[in-house]
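Summary for the funding panel

The consortium committed to producing paired sequence-structure records for every protein in the target list. Below we show the first two records in order, beginning with the earlier of the two.
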Amino acid sequence: MSGEKVLLFHFTEESQLKAVRTILFLMQIPERIVRKEEYARPIKELLEEAGENQTLKANPMMRELDGQMIVFAGISGDKLDSLLSLLRSNPACGSIPYKAVLTEMNQSWSAYALFEELKREHEAMNKQRK
């Protein structure tokens, strides 16, 4: 895996997905929409080109995430800051609370594991604000 890429999980509203994809296109950042059938695979595998062409059978045991998640890979600090600012300032993008940057630690996690960790962190931050 090399270069910049963004993984998009559980974007069900077409207008929101279009707004996010437009920003990524304008910033010249490739994106990939991840299907729930792929959620058990390691995040690192989802970023590899070969993973996009795999045919996966529908598995009724694969559940959808409880919310949307974005994973940023290989995007530098200033560019990531600009991207996040654009996503926040565009009302069509809506609120996307679960965002992560690919790290050595989380690259082997499944989407489910990463989502649960982000959810715990999000809940902890909201408790601190109260």
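The next record, for a separate protein in the list, is shown here:
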Amino acid sequence: MSHYFTNDYVKSEEKTVKVIIKNIHLKFIVDNGVFSKKGLDFGTRTLLENIQDIKGDVLDFGCGYGPIGIFIKKTSSSNVDMIDINDRAISLAKKNAKLNKVDVNIFKSNIYENIDKKYDYIITNPPIRVGKKILYEILFKAKEYLKENGKLLFVINKNGGAKSVLKDLEKEYEVDVITKNKGFYIICAKKH
């Protein structure tokens, strides 16, 4: 089976979806083989509706077709980098940045391999299906790419192991649950 974090592609069937987040109107080209091909998923929407005062350097980790990074750029003066391992996601994110008239830096990276700077925020709807080992590498290695007092903001479902992830993160970060909505936890993990 093909997953959105792999590059073995299913047939392309691009379509454009309209999304409104906090009264910001956006359009996204979505496609098969990329997470949430029907449009903005509930977890990402909950994340974006509940984070605020984002400024500085931001990394959208696992950007998919681009909703997080594009929304952040549209609503702040942040410098936004967006990464994904999936070639189709990178291509869509670049098209969507143009479509939504935002200036962001989009490039391919396997986890943090092509990252060479530190960020004020790393924001993600992490790929849970990669398994706990890779998920934990994404979440815990983020610390190395955060500035002093930098924050990792992410969404995770209760069924995706939210409670155990929270408990484990508390060993390395100052952790706060920003909100819970229909089983989705929005978590802020602050580097200290």
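Regarding this second record: The longest helix spans residues 87-99. The chain has a mean pLDDT of 91.
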